[in-house]
């Protein structure tokens, strides 16, 4: 098994070489001096390799933890490299579904039902009061307390949240929209989230 002392002492040679640890984890030392964590495994009858980063940015302990996580995924009958790529794709998709992006899509879809003045009011209110706080956050990660903070801050400045019907009469928001979960449900129901 490897130790930090062995890893620090590893020097480049004319050809790349491996320093092996346990359970097929190894450090690949390149001729240019790079020290790269790799893990060999078999999936679907083929030999594969998974990269875990460079030493010392990824320590020996962290490399072992990553290997153990990958082994657990492999034990479930899944290819760890593909599972990692899917997770990256999911994270990128979640990052693209920010509150501001979804709210602007919602506004664009819904504004035809409103008078132009009201549509402009709604967008201006979102830009002034909501987007600075919630705008850059992925919708799936917005906690309910943060939404309440935004609503309370808006109420404190003396302009309560109101919607107006086609005749200009104000009425409160529907009671069915009380939590971020309801917001997420509305987003997916109306097909506003990108996939």
UniProtKB/TrEMBL annotation:
The keyword Glycosyltransferase does not apply. It comes from the Bacteria. Keywords: DNA integration, DNA-binding. InterPro entries: Integrase_DNA-bd_sf, Integrase_DNA_bind_dom, Integrase_recombinase_N, Phage_int_M, Phage_Integrase. Residues 99-154 form the Phage integrase central domain. Residues 164-184 are annotated as: Disordered. GO terms for biological process: DNA integration. This is Integrase DNA-binding domain-containing protein. It comes from Sphingosinicella soli. The lineage of its organism: Bacteria, Pseudomonadati, Pseudomonadota, Alphaproteobacteria, Sphingomonadales. Residues 2-85 form the Integrase DNA-binding domain. The keyword DNA-binding applies.
């Amino acid at each position: 098994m490897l130790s930090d002392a062995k890893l620090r002492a590893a020097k480049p040679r004319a050809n790349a070489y491996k320093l092996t640890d346990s359970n097929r984890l190894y450090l690949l030392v390149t001729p240019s001096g790079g020290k790269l964590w790799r893990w060999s495994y078999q999936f679907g009858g083929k030999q594969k390799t998974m990269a875990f980063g460079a030493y010392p940015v990824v320590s020996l302990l962290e490399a072992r933890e990553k290997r153990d996580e990958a082994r657990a995924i492999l034990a479930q009958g899944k290819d760890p490299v593909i599972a990692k790529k899917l997770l990256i794709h999911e994270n990128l998709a979640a990052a693209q579904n920010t509150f501001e992006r979804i709210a602007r899509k919602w506004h664009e879809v819904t504004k035809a039902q409103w008078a132009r003045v009201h549509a402009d009011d709604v967008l201006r209110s979102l830009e002034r009061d909501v987007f600075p706080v919630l705008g850059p956050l992925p919708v799936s990660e917005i906690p309910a307390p943060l939404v309440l903070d935004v609503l309370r801050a808006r109420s404190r400045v003396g302009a309560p949240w109101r919607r107006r019907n086609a005749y200009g009469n104000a009425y409160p928001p529907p009671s069915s929209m009380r939590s971020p979960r309801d917001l997420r449900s509305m987003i997916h129901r109306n097909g506003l989230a990108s996939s």
